[in-house]
Amino acid sequence: EYDVVDAVRQTLADYANGLLKRIKKAHTDGETQLRNALMDRFLEVILDQDKLMNTTPDFMLGRWINDARNLGTTTTEKDLYEKNARLQVTTWGPLASANSSGLRDYSNREWGGLLKDYYYERWKLYFDRIKAGASTPSGTAFFNMEYAWATTPTTTTPYPYTSQSDPIQTAVEVFGKYY
Q1: What are phi and psi of 60, to 5 degrees?
Q2: What is the per-residue pLDDT for 153?
Q3: Burial of 157 (0-12, 13-18, 19+ CB in 10 A)
Q4: pLDDT for 172 beyond 70
Q5: Residue 102, pLDDT above cutoff 70
Q6: Which residues pair with 112 in a beta bridge?
Q7: In this model, does residue 131 exceed pLDDT 80?
Q8: Mean pLDDT over residues 20-24, rounded?
Q9: Residue 43 CB: number of other CB atoms within 10 A?
Q10: CA dist., res. 106 & res. 90, Å (int)
Q11: CA 21, 128, 111 angle in degrees (round to 5)?
């Protein structure tokens, strides 16, 4: 099951990379409708990949966060460990260290929960700006969104850490949607 989910994950990532090339070409060629449709498709792939990853605990943000929180003995400690776990898989720290260390997006995990609530939102911000004809957001604009996500404990939005659906059935469904 793990291998099937991982293979379909990689297939979706490769498909998404191809979409990005097509988005860039459509944008360069002035094909706005095609570009926008491809952007929407790209975002849809992220959500489908998130659904797929939430079938296997090894690919779930909730497991990572739950493990980190379980190391703490007080609420304050649990929140700190969660914050550190979130920072480690995203910005790696505050703006200065994120930009100067070269570690921002270092771990780049394709995990259930992280895809939907972090990467999807970042890509959506980027695409929405392009669709509106505005300049693309600065790295700082992205960082502010990223850091806010990374420093918000799951006590407000918990992430599951057990399978949310059958891995093989979901892999077949998601793979069949694109191929």
Answers
A1: -115, 130
A2: 74
A3: exposed
A4: yes
A5: no
A6: 60
A7: yes
A8: 97
A9: 18
A10: 7
A11: 65
